[in-house]
Amino acid sequence: MTRSIQLRVPASTANLGPGYDSLGMALSLYLTVSATLSHASANDSPTTPSISLTYTGAEPGAISLDPSKNLISRTLLDTLRAAHTSLPANSVLSIHIDNPIPLGRGLGSSGSAVVAGVVLANWAAQLGWSRDKLLQHCVAIEGHPDNVAPSLLGGFVASVMSGSGPTAAQDADHEPPVYTLQLPFAKDKIKLVAVVPAYHTPTDLARAALPKAYAVGQVVHTVQRAVMLTHVLGNPNVHGKGTHLTKQALGCLLDDVLHQPYRMHLIPGFQQLKSALNTNPDVLGLCVSGAGPTVLIFCTLDVDVPQLTSSIEVEYAKLPHPEHPGKVGIDVLVLPIECAEEGSQWTES
Ligand SMILES: Nc1ncnc2c1ncn2[C@@H]1O[C@H](COP(=O)(O)OP(=O)(O)OP(=O)(O)O)[C@@H](O)[C@H]1O
Ligand SMILES: N[C@@H](CCO)C(=O)O
């Protein structure tokens, strides 16, 4: 008997300025995974199940095809173990991954891979988990909800992990309750552009750079902005500033003091880009996407993307490359992108 699944998982941007570990948005760039599970005949002598992996897409040399190391198959195996089950004896699981999401750049590649692994486990072992249960488990594995929640559910999502601190342990066996809320995002008024520089910021390194405690002033600054930002991104009229979302308003709401300032040494280009685009009337605001180094720019619908691209390239061309000592200039991909309303989709046959 053979069963198959085709799965599509959107990328995501997390934090959106002050929403550290809380806000995230699914983006129109998709990891796709196809898998086939074959069982040998019951008459054959039992053999241990096997998994084979193939990969196309971003940085193939950086992705392990060893099932115990690859993030998707490792997540699948951890999920089966947490569910106290395993692949059937005599089964062969073939997985093909096609991944255009740049790795270690702040576009949620690992969150999408975790979602794919959990959905594959649910399918392979016929666990019958609901989307809610899938989400709880994805968050337990990823350790923070702001990438996996939008990648699974779609749209602009606020998440709360009950009873946890900001950096809950990543533990597939202990699922913290997670509450999510899908918020409106005014894609008819705001255009998104992702600026993806050609270097990596590993998320674990960026998380380790944060302080263990914050001053009350930093917390108040953050809460004030995060609360208003969730409303303004869906309904861009700011009281006292007329009927348009003004540059001052969004620039102020995206200002973050919890994570971005502590990560600047890992994200060369962000400060320079922020200063350079300050006078561009079609740039409403910008923030670091996830743990960086990608920068997410919020633009008016009138933005001239080729012109914006040129001004961005000029800034990165001046910078020393963080991964190539002695080299000046960082290549950069400027990607107009949309909020993906639909989360992960799969079809089984
Ligand atoms: N499709 C995939 N298949 C297998 N492994 C993947 C895949 N996508 C990401 N990974 C693993 O995740 C790592 C990147 O994770 P990391 O958390 O550092 O960055 P990110 O998720 O791209 O960025 P951010 O968390 O800031 O949004 C890769 O180096 C790779 O090991
Ligand atoms: N909230 C996470 C997102 C990582 O993608 C962080 O900033 O570390």
Give an overview in words.
With 349 residues, the protein is α+β, with helices and mostly antiparallel strands. It folds into two domains: 2-183, Ribosomal Protein S5, domain 2 (2-Layer Sandwich); 191-337, Alpha-Beta Plaits, CATH 3.30.70.890. Helix content is 29%, strand content 25%. It is built from ten helices and eleven strands. The chain has helices at residues 71-82, 109-124, 131-142, 148-153, 203-208, 216-232, 247-253, 260-263, 270-276, 305-317; strands at 2-14, 23-39, 50-57, 91-99, 156-161, 178-183, 191-197, 283-288, 295-299, 332-337, 345-348. Strands 1, 2, 3, 4, 5, 6 and 11 form a seven-stranded mixed sheet that branches. It has a four-stranded antiparallel sheet with strand order 8-9-7-10. Helix 1 (71-82) packs across helix 2 and helix 2 crosses helix 3. It is globular and about 75 Å long. The site of L-homoserine has 14 residues, from helix 5. Residues 14, 31, 62-63, 70-72, 97, 99, 103-111, 113, 147, 202-203, 290-291 line the site of adenosine-5'-triphosphate.
Q: What CATH architecture of the largest domain do you see?
A: 2-Layer Sandwich
The geometry reads as globular
User: The biggest beta sheet, please?
Assistant: 7 strands, mixed
Rounded to the nearest angstrom, the distance between the terminal CA atoms is 11 Å
Q: Helix segment count?
A: 10
Which runs of at least 5 residues are low in confidence (pLDDT < 50)? 238-243
Question: Averaged pLDDT, please?
Answer: 92
Q: Structural class from helices and strands?
A: alpha+beta
Our Rg estimate from Cα atoms comes to 21 Å
Q: What percent strand?
A: 15-25%
Helical residue percent band:
25-40%
CATH class of the largest domain: Alpha Beta
Pathway: Amino-acid biosynthesis; L-threonine biosynthesis; L-threonine from L-aspartate: step 4/5
Protein name: Homoserine kinase
InterPro entries: GHMP_kinase_C_dom, GHMP_kinase_C_sf, GHMP_kinase_N_dom, GHMP_knse_ATP-bd_CS, Homoserine_kinase, Ribosomal_Su5_D2-typ_SF, Ribsml_uS5_D2-typ_fold_subgr
Keywords: Amino-acid biosynthesis, ATP-binding, Kinase, Nucleotide-binding, Ribonucleoprotein, Ribosomal protein, Threonine biosynthesis, Transferase
